[in-house]
Amino acid sequence: MDLFKNEGKIFVISGPSGSGKSTIANALLEEPDTVFSISMTTRKIREGEVDGVNYYFVTDEEYDRTVAEGGFLEHAEIYNHKYGTPKKPALENLKKGLNVILEIEMQGALQVKESYPDAVLIFVLPPSLKILRERIENRGTDSKEEIDKRMAATVKELDYLKDYDYYIVNDIKEVAVETVKNIMRIEKQKVKNLPANFIEEYIKE
Ligand code: 5GP
User: Fold this and answer.
1) Of 12, 24, 112, 179, whose CB is crowded by the most CB atoms within 10 A?
2) Are 184 and 28 in contact (CB under 8 A)?
3) What does the pLDDT profile of the chain (205 residues) look like in tens digits?
4) Burial (CB count <10 Å: 0-12, 13-18, 19+), residue 18
């Protein structure tokens, strides 16, 4: 079986706030040989979050140093906070043959695709903007003004859809999760993923 083992793959999950992308990204960890990339951020830790699990919460200085050292696979500023994917653990995990899940926004996703064209970009869409609005309203955590702002941001984010490889409509969560898992499984079966010396080793066995 080891003969078929090759470098791992990067799977990027993005989507508007309220699209359910985090739930989908977390469910992907149920797949074999799959790990989550833990980002660095300068934003404040929220209740229920754990440093080193949800994010590495760092100072501006630490973040800037990592940028200067070329320590990010991608990085971006969102709503005045900085976010970045640490390069070293991601590359080490790929070398080990693991799938690496990045749950990041669109500017970062495009940087990843540029450096790693084999990365698979998946865009999570709510079934409709009307339903997205209802979902956010039902959470009851945001003011009308805040919701209007988010909806406008979502419309802008749709500009990035064309640069993604796959879209997922998050209507029924279980179906959406299963579809993304299927994308992962299929992407792993591409012939170009096989090691360069595959035939040589295969006929030897
Ligand atoms: P939050 O602060 O709510 O956890 O995340 C805000 C946004 O930042 C989300 O869209 C999330 O996907 C994105 N994000 C989280 N980590 C990273 C990262 O390392 N790089 C980029 N580009 N975006 C990130």
Assistant:
1) 12
2) yes
3) 578 888 899 999 999 999 999 999 999 999 999 999 999 999 999 999 999 999 999 999 999 999 999 999 999 999 899 999 999 999 999 999 999 999 999 999 999 999 999 999 999 999 999 999 999 999 888 899 999 999 999 999 999 999 999 999 999 999 999 999 999 999 999 999 998 899 999 999 8
4) buried
Choose the residue to mutate in 105, 111, 114 for probing ligand 1, maximizing ligand atoms within 8 Å of C-beta: 105
Nearest atom of ligand 1 to the alpha carbon of 106: 22
Q: How far is the CA of 41 from the centre of ligand 1 (A)?
A: 8
pTM above 0.85, yes or no: yes
Q: 77 and 5 in contact (C-beta within 8 Å)?
A: no
Is 91 within 8 Å of 72 (Cβ atoms)? Answer: no
37 CA closest ligand 1 atom index: 19
Asked whether 74 lines ligand 1 (CB < 6 A), one says yes
- Whether ligand 1 lies within 6 angstroms of the CB of 187 is answered as no
- Residue with the nearest Cα to atom 7 of ligand 1? 105
